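Please, structure for the following, as tokens.
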Amino acid sequence: MSAPTNNPLLDPSPLPFRLPLFELIAPEHFREALSLGIAEQEAELATIAANPEPPDFENTIVALERSGGLLRRVLPVFENRSAADADAAIDSLEAEFAPKFAALRDSMLLDQRLFARLEVLVTELDAGELHLGVGVDPAPDRLAARAYLLRRRHRVAVLAGARLSIDGRTRLSQLNERIAGLTTEFQRELLADANSRALHLSDEGELAGLDDARRATAAAAAASRGLRGWVIPLVLPTQQPALAELGDPEVRDRLLAASRGRGTSGGPHDTRTVLLELVRVRAERAALLGYADHATAVTADETAGSPAAVAELIAELAPRAMANARREAADLAALAEHDGRRRLEASDWLHLAERERAQRHAVDLAAMRPYLEAGRVLRDGVFHAATLLYGLAFDERHDLVAHHPDASVFEVSEADGTPVGLYLLDLYARDSKRGGAWMSSLTLQSDLTGELPVVVNHLNVQKPPAGDPTLLTFDETETLFHEFGHALHGLLARVEFPSLSGTNVFRDFVELPSQVNELWALRPEILGRYGVHHESGEPIPDEFVERLIASRSFGEGFATTEYLAAAALDQAWHRLDVDAAAALDGVDAVAGFERRALEAAGLFDQRIPPRYSSSYFAHVFAGGYDAGYYSYVWSEVPGADIMAWFEEHGGARRELGDLFRAEILAPGGSRDPRESIRRLLGREPSIDALLARRGLD
């Protein structure tokens, strides 16, 4: 690529809230901006490390927090583009720069001069001799946050290998660069394979069970690929939403086979070779750092503390979940036999479960879709809940351009008009977008930098034909509420330093705000606003909602089992030591390892495959949740307790929202999350609410 001119990434954006000038950014701009950003931060780190003055909080910690301004501005924009709208040029840049980012992180964590300064500061802090440099009469919480930041930086450096020998640090940097390249490769190949496996249907009879909106969406997906007929693209989890509706068992079999086959073709997009290499390299890195395995290294810096604690929670939940799932299977097997199936298959489960739900609870989730028009769900559901709880106001900014034409931009403000930040929503699936749903931050709130947050929610809802409404499933509605909980964490953080802002928290705490935000999807004060028929304007019938709420624990045996199976699988891969990882020879070893791991955890049932099988488990082989997929249920223990606290005290009330905001959202990563939970509840969290919520009590 030739050197670009007038690069819109090099200077702070003139737009409100520093929203990037997306319409001016071309792929070639990223190479220059990222290269300059890396060079700038390397120079700043060298200056801090070589400072002849004795280390203090200002010339070391604050200086580190100020460093890397260009990269802090550009890298989130690049990562967002890579995840949400990649092409060959972006893929190439990601492969080129992933090792460079890993090397830069190592230079910050492993530089012995920087680490020596941290050692001095922590020693002085322990002795009560460190001046934290906050005014004449500093607020106790701000002092505590500064002390916490210092201890976190020091601990992260130790866990990252700062105390290794020079040879050890050199080898560690090599391993980190290799891991960065492999995770990038896994994501790229998985996306390509998933796109190639989208189910193409040419006979309209094969669409039996799909409503008109689903059929139109499938036709649009085919047309976008230049194909006749209909296409059902694959979403990230094993079970595909269309399985609940497709009436033809053979079509369901084909769709689930396409889903489960991702990454196992033996061709250019097979992810298993990458997966095995990642497991080996992570195991070697853990051993170099002095840990038994990668899971031990990861959980050492999480609230769980150890893989043993994770295993204990999974072991407590697994038999309860499997017992419920087997009872559910017995009921569904009778329906399968009635349909002429010799036995219940994994591809039948969602379809038959919806029939069973309809028979047992008179609930038809497909009939709910006309009441879940996406725009109304967003404004009168998701946004309305945030207004009731936190006093927030949302105004769409049609004058601001997002990263993709499908995405929208909203300005967020307090009830008194004080600016909060920007919220972007990118709702629709496309071939250039990775699967799943997630939140990312383009700008972090920080008193130090004076910046307010810009956050993005990404979903993968199938886009309907032009002019048709976007009707969500109830699962998609809950997902939107969930991801907006992450967005609130980013929007409402109020911290001094960018590294502590928003979702920069322990991985097994980060899901708590998003899980709690799911509560509002079915609360009457929220659902009564957004649950309106998109054509008639009629509200969703009360009895329908009552039946849906009464059936909430229906199918939780299956849902909990498939989740726990994935969590156990993640732990099994990452509890391998160097020798055990090296002994896995060839891609054919992957399936056998997966089955043995699930059997050992008491979670193997061919009718209930893991939510993610190894070859398409992007969370742990590409998405930063390696040895951490357990965190969803780990954070759900206090999360369910907090949901019960909200319900016991009256639901979406401003007083409760203000407390939750003050104790959970606003602190970001500036204190131990266990302290935040205790402050809110006034006690330690209990698992009882989780067991009741999942029907496991």
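The chain is about 55% helix and 5% strand. The chain has a mean pLDDT of 95.
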